[in-house]
Amino acid sequence: MVPKTPIGRRLFSWMDERFQIVPFVEFMKHKSVPSHRGTILYYTGGVALFLFLVQVLTGILLVFYYRADENAAFESIRYIMTKVEFGWLVRSIHSWSANLMVFFVLVHMFSNYFTRAYQKPRELTWLTGFVLLTLTMGFGFTGYLLPWNELAFFATKVGTDIMGVVPVVGDLAKMVLRGGEDVTGATLSRFFAIHIAILPALFGILLGLHLLFVQLQGMHEPEAVAGLNPEKKKLIAFFPNFLLRDTLVWLLVFNVLLFLAVFFPWELGEKADPFASAPAGIRPEWYFLFMFQTLKLIPAHVIFIEGELLGITLFGLAGLVWALLPFWAIKDGTGKGRHVMTLIGVLAVVFFVGMTLFGYLA
Amino acid sequence: MGLNRRQFVNVLLGGGILGALGSLLYPVFSYLRPPKGSEANVQSVKAGLASEFPNNSGQIVKFGRKPVILIRSETGEFHALSATCTHLECIVQYRPELKQIWCACHNGLYDITGRNISGPPPRPLTEYSVDIVSDEIHITKPAELS
């Protein structure tokens, strides 16, 4: 991998003299990815990363025109979509790529669940991945309000009110997040700050750690492959073979993204009016719909607990249990334990997909 | 309490670091907590003419910074209620065909006196008093909210 041209060679040795890059080059040379039936799942994380990069780039472009003010936010997005050259495309890509990113992060998570990639020694990779998922949803939640439209206004009212239900710190958290008692322009400013400063900083750190862990430990091999004789294992060199395949998948995803953005441009909706009734058919983004629908079904009071408190507590506990999966999962790789873990995963997927569909159809 | 010199210095250093962190974080958290708004304490608002308000209809009225729903029943009585759903704070609306108040967010229903009758709302809507003074509708905040 040492450059072949004289200038390249000189640059390489200049760098190596200062930063000792030869061991890194050697590491990259020997890095390989297992090749088996499930190799396709290895691309899901990369696709999520690609979509995150698209988010960063389009987000930076949007910030040039966006104004985080309750009297100007909606108008500034309308201006981007109608007056700025390619503004409609940039905004549409940003919205579509946000949704696709959540989708791929979820696919990535469940593929790692079902292939048991969270097991020792990858506990922290799972944990950082889980935090990245919550940050991704945080991006979605805060970004949803920024156009200051009717749907976003009520979704934010509901979402932040849910936070207020949390015992002890809930009220304070709600006030801090809203910037006051109600969802107002102050909320918009805060959500903007969270969306473009706090979340990217946290996401960057967590993503760095997540990728570092993957590099240090290599790709996870499913049990059937890990048990094979080393001679029988098929490997793909990471550089350049796997990287080129990754690039191809990224290009395919980019094409799908452009197709969606061009032919199904993201709508802006109606401007939020804090003194208008919530419109019929109101619902949050699809990835929050399963929670929204569940909250709808829980009655006002269950025994002596308020329904919403019960719902939030159950979701909070379920999230915690899911995050700590590597520490409680049944390790028995062949027997009943394996089936129990698969069943739990299937139930989680069925609940998520079922409640989401129910939310759309109800 | 036999602290040797090293432990003593460690406690001093640790305490110092904690104190420094606290003195840094306290202003940050205080900064993030929004100041108590100098909210004008609205006690009463006028909401138009009673003669122009049709029976079996409702509308949202601004009561300071809070939304209030004013409803005129089929028989002509007025009811004013907080328009903020007691479930998750969406703004409710009057459904003439049901003769009930409905929250679109989670399908909560209240009767026209604000009593929660179905769906997730845990409490009734707060009732405001309505007076008609020479055909003008006056909505007044209940004593417990003043």
Summarize it.
The complex is a heterodimer of chains A (362) and B (146). Chain A is globular, with a radius of gyration of 23 Å. Chain A is mainly α and 362 residues long.
Descriptive tags:
heterodimer, A: 362 residues, mainly alpha, two-stranded antiparallel ribbon, 4 strands, 3% strand, B: 146 residues, alpha+beta, six-stranded antiparallel sheet, 1 helix, 10 strands, 19% helix
General description of the model:
The complex is a heterodimer of chains A (362) and B (146). Chain A has 362 residues and is mainly alpha-helical. Helices cover 69% and strands 3% of the residues of chain A. Chain A contains 15 helices and 4 strands. Chain A has a two-stranded antiparallel ribbon. Chain A has a two-stranded antiparallel ribbon with strand order 3-4. In chain A, a hairpin with a 2-residue loop joins strand 3 (301-302) and strand 4 (305-306). In chain A, helix 4 crosses helix 5 and helix 5 (87-114) packs antiparallel against helix 6 (123-145). The termini of chain A are far apart. The mean pLDDT of chain A is 92. Chain B is of the alpha+beta class and 146 residues long. In chain B, 19% of the residues lie in helices and 34% in strands. Chain B is built from 1 helix and 10 strands; from the N terminus they run H-E-E-E-E-E-E-E-E-E-E. Chain B has one helix spanning 5-32, and strands at 44-49, 57-63, 66-72, 78-82, 93-95, 100-103, 108-110, 116-118, 127-133, 136-140. Chain B has a 6-stranded antiparallel beta sheet, with no helix packed on it. In chain B, strands 5-6-7-8 form a 4-stranded antiparallel beta sheet, with no helix packed on it. The longest helix of chain B is centred in the N-terminal third of the chain and has 28 residues, at 5-32. Chain B is elongated. The termini of chain B are far apart. The mean pLDDT of chain B is 90. The interface between A and B is medium-sized, with 33 and 27 residues.
